[in-house]
Amino acid sequence: MKYVILFSRSADSLTLLVFPATFCLCLSELKTLAEGYTKLTMKFTLLTHSKEIGKPSNTGKLALETLGADAEMICWDRLNPPAKLLEEINGGGVALLYPGRSDEPESDLSSIKHIILIDATWHEARRIHQRSPYLHEIPRISLKPEEKSIYNLRKNQKESGLCTAECVIEILRKCGDNDAADNLYSRLLNHIRPAGKMRGAYPRLFKAADDQMLHQGESSGRET
Question: What is the per-residue pLDDT for 208?
């Protein structure tokens, strides 16, 4: 997918917004978005397997499109660790999102400002973790979502697992960045298959829309 990159420079900062090329906006709308951009609580780095780039089933790109300057993608390279990311790890406040034991308590994010997510299949993610010593030295956090995944673009998914976009949504909500979480959730719903083919919980947004249509039909005395 091609992207449009917009820079907004102020006296002491540089904001970068990334949009998919199909996301068409006029110049005035782009300016409004740049000026109204609010930095999120958390920074996200997607350490992405090369096989994931360009895959229709990949949801990491949805996070990049939604979060702009607060998300980045680094293509994992076993022989050449990312120098800038290593510097940030050494600076502290960085954690790796990685599944823990089922009996572990949910992680506290209060001291974390930057989260690394391995954007790959479960098998590839384990290999990336095993072959990246710098990931072994940083704190690990895990999520315990209240709802099951709605992701349905791949077979043989773990029942308790979440896709990359869903992980980001969970973290955003825990940090209080609900607007960004809602935007990413809406984009994920548009990306996956119709509700009738979804696994897990019935999507909240689809259910709300159905309830609203039913209510309108009852009020007008007509069937929907």
Answer: 47
Tally of residues, the chain: 224
**What's the whole-number mean pLDDT along residues 201-220?**
47
b/e for 177-187, b at 16 or more Cβ within 10 A?
Answer: beebbebbbeb
Cα 166–Cα 169–Cα 173 angle in degrees, nearest 5: 145
100 vs 136, residue with greater confidence: 136
For residues 37 and 8, is the Cβ–Cβ distance under 8 A? Answer: yes
Q: Which amino acid is at 112?
A: I
> d(Cα 43, Cα 40) in Å, to the nearest integer?
7
CB 128 within 8 A of CB 47: yes
pLDDT at position 131 over 50: yes
Range 122-147 average pLDDT: 91
* Torsions phi, psi for 15 (to 5 deg): -100, 135
Q: Count H helices, E strands: the chain?
A: 7, 7
User: DSSP letters of 6-37?
Assistant: EEEE-SS-EEEEEEETTS---HHHHHHHHHT-
**What mean pLDDT is predicted for residues 69-83?**
95
Residues near 122 by Cβ (< 8 Å), separated by ≥ 6? 158, 161
Q: How far apart are CA 145 and CA 209, in angstroms?
A: 23
Of 59, 69, 77, 92, the C-alpha closest to 19 is: 69
Global confidence as pTM: 0.68
